[in-house]
């Protein structure tokens, strides 16, 4: 054995082993490109500390941030038909659904919870944009309908937080049918005398905007959220004009009367608390003709002096046809 060429390398263990750094510790702000530490970003509800840009928020975290003490009960949603059209483009629709379900850990693009906001009962339906762009299919329509029925049963306000690109193309006409279904669900809540509030987030577009997202009693939008039906490039190519700066953003829509208020995400729960406190108070405003006869005060009898002072024209006008002089 030649000890110059054949030897056993000694095993030397370093005192300080190098640890691999996870890739998700830092996030870049899409607006100002500042690097944000993940814990600071979570504590600020996915809002950039430097420029105030509102990033998308997971629906579970959103529900926890909206309800009092983060306490709420999940509402079980009914199961819907999967791939009714047997649709296939570059992939099968069933494969796309499985990928989205594995990625997000939920059945579809909506989560519903019930609890208290500012001490007032509320049912919140939040969209998940990470699930196929928050697109609205049959399952989402069933979720909105279940949320409306739960709100009516619990005599609670209904709050919907859309984050969607519109209807789900893989379900064709069945996805478009969810527009009238969700509108009817909202009307059920309003007929029950309960408030319906929409919290518009980025983005809210397409068939969602054209249905339940724009028929609320109160419209609250997050800062900088894109809200519209068609995309800005499609509109520009259609009308052949340059759109104004900030078009389809929440601040622009507030200036033009489409949104009631624009709030920071950290101020959303206090704002909802004040609004619900006002809307959930019973209001007794009944027209006199709707009251029972006993509740309507009778006309006081007039004295002979008052009757004598009355002019002949006034007296004749008050007589009925059988009492008119011949």
Automatic annotation (TrEMBL):
Its EC number is 2.1.3.15. InterPro entries: AcCoA_carboxyl_beta, Acetyl_CoA_COase_Trfase_b_su, ClpP/crotonase-like_dom_sf, COA_CT_N, Znf-ACC. Zn(2+) binds at residues 29, 32, 48, 51. This is Acetyl-coenzyme A carboxylase carboxyl transferase subunit beta. It is found in: Cytoplasm. It holds the Pfam family Zn_ribbon_ACC. PANTHER family: ACETYL-COENZYME A CARBOXYLASE CARBOXYL TRANSFERASE SUBUNIT BETA, CHLOROPLASTIC. Its main location: cytoplasm. One of its GO terms (cellular component) is acetate CoA-transferase complex. Residues 25-294 form the CoA carboxyltransferase N-terminal domain. Gene3D superfamilies: 2-enoyl-CoA Hydratase, Chain A, domain 1. Acetyl-CoA carboxylase is a heterohexamer composed of biotin carboxyl carrier protein (AccB), biotin carboxylase (AccC) and two subunits each of ACCase subunit alpha (AccA) and ACCase subunit beta (AccD). Component of the acetyl coenzyme A carboxylase (ACC) complex. Biotin carboxylase (BC) catalyzes the carboxylation of biotin on its carrier protein (BCCP) and then the CO(2) group is transferred by the transcarboxylase to acetyl-CoA to form malonyl-CoA. One of its GO terms (molecular function) is zinc ion binding. Residues 294-326 are annotated as: Disordered. Belongs to the AccD/PCCB family. Binds 1 zinc ion per subunit. Keywords: ATP-binding, Cytoplasm, Fatty acid biosynthesis, Fatty acid metabolism, Lipid biosynthesis, Lipid metabolism, Metal-binding, Nucleotide-binding, Transferase, Zinc, Zinc-finger. A zinc finger (C4-type) spans 29-51.
């Amino acid at each position: 054995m030649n000890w110059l060429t054949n030897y056993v390398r000694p095993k030397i263990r370093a005192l300080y082993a190098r640890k691999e750094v996870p890739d998700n510790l830092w996030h870049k702000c899409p607006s100002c490109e500042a690097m944000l530490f993940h814990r600071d970003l979570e504590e600020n509800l996915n809002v950039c500390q430097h420029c105030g840009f509102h990033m998308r928020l997971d629906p579970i975290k959103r529900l926890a941030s909206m309800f009092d003490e983060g306490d709420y009960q999940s509402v079980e949603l009914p199961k819907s038909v999967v791939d009714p059209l047997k649709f296939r483009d570059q992939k099968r629709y069933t494969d796309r659904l499985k990928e989205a379900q594995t990625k997000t850990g939920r059945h579809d693009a909506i989560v519903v919870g019930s609890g208290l906001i500012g001490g007032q009962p509320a049912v919140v339906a939040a969209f998940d944009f990470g699930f196929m762009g928050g697109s609205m299919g049959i399952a989402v329509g069933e979720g909105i309908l279940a949320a409306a029925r739960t709100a009516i049963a619990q005599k609670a306000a209904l709050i919907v937080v859309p984050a969607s690109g519109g209807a789900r193309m893989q379900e064709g006409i069945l996805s478009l049918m969810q527009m009238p279904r969700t509108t009817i669900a909202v009307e059920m809540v309003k007929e029950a005398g309960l408030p319906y509030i929409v919290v518009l987030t980025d983005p809210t577009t397409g068939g969602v905007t054209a249905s339940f997202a724009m028929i609320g009693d109160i419209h609250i939008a997050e800062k900088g959220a894109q809200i519209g039906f068609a995309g800005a490039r499609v509109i520009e190519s259609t009308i052949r004009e340059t759109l104004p700066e900030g078009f389809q953003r929440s601040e622009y829509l507030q200036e033009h009367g489409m949104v009631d208020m624009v709030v920071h995400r950290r101020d959303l729960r206090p704002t909802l608390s004040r609004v619900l406190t006002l809307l959930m108070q019973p209001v007794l405003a009944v027209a006199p003709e709707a009251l029972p006869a006993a509740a309507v005060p009778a006309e006081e009898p007039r004295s002979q002096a008052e009757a004598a002072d009355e002019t002949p024209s006034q007296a004749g006008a008050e007589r009925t046809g059988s009492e008119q002089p011949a």
